[in-house]
Amino acid sequence: MKISLAGRAAVVTGAARGLGLGIAKRLAHSGAALLLIDMLEAELASASAELRTYGGLVEALSLDITAADAPARIRAAAESTFGAADILVNNAGMAISGTIEEFTDEQWDRTLAVNLTAPFRLVRELVPVMAARGFGRVLNISSWTALAGIRQDACYGATKAGLIALTRSIAVDYGSFGVTANAIAPGTIETPLSADILRNADPDSAFMQIVLYNKPISGPGQIDDIASAAAFLVSDEAKHITGQVIAIDGGLTATRFVPDAEGRIERRYLPKEGNLPNVVSAS
Ligand SMILES: NC(=O)c1ccc[n+]([C@@H]2O[C@H](COP(=O)([O-])OP(=O)(O)OC[C@H]3O[C@@H](n4cnc5c(N)ncnc54)[C@H](O)[C@@H]3O)[C@@H](O)[C@H]2O)c1
Q1: Is 191's C-beta closer than 6 angstroms to any atom of ligand 1?
Q2: Do residues 168 and 146 lie in contact, with contact meaning Cβ atoms separated by under 8 Å?
């Protein structure tokens, strides 16, 4: 199916690199006009220059989405660029890992501000306008860690779970006004954010085995895996999909037990040794 976003205008946060840039490219490729938001000014300038070569309307606004005046500035820029935004992609995010005892109030507050409060404030600014015009799409980029607890991730996981709850509330409150809201929960995707984790982690560690290899589709995902789903979810074709969380994680959150090539399941992560045979038949 070829997705057309011709005539649609999208605001994408965190669009200077990584998933945000990949999503922006896909939306531009499908014909959407774009307002790109990021606090990395130089990267944002080069991203928008690249996207303009696609031939569509591309504007960029460099700011920190947590700034008090950010939503009003984004709305004003959207109005002056294309009248009003049809699509909002809340993609900008940050992650700090650590044990619960290690997290400081400042780290908690900052992660919450970027990953949840800023998306909420942007929704509050832009979605009523979408509702008044009878069409809108909100796409929130959550994380698989909102769906399954992982070690040393309380802060990030909690904000991303909150983003899912926010998604469902938007869906319920605005569905009758033609506005849908969905979330994507990516697994580990190769981007600048995950590069350090992927580079520095021991490939044989239990964590890396679980997040990268003990899942139906092995290895990290690619930016396009997220971008193509994003383009569909914000399109007219997805008009009956709302309040959903689409995990794009190679099946990581679908199972703990992955059959090997012979259809056998290795018992690696059951907590108690000896309760089950070490290898059980998949059937
Ligand atoms: N890469 C992964 O494996 C993965 C997995 C699950 C979820 N995610 C989520 O996907 C989203 C994108 O991640 P990514 O891997 O592309 O990250 P990234 O760090 O490569 O890109 C994030 C972008 O957001 C921008 N940004 C961050 N805070 C901002 C702020 N306060 N104001 C304005 N811009 C800000 C950054 O400058 C950056 O350009 C994030 O929300 C992340 O939590 C990523």
Answers
A1: yes
A2: no
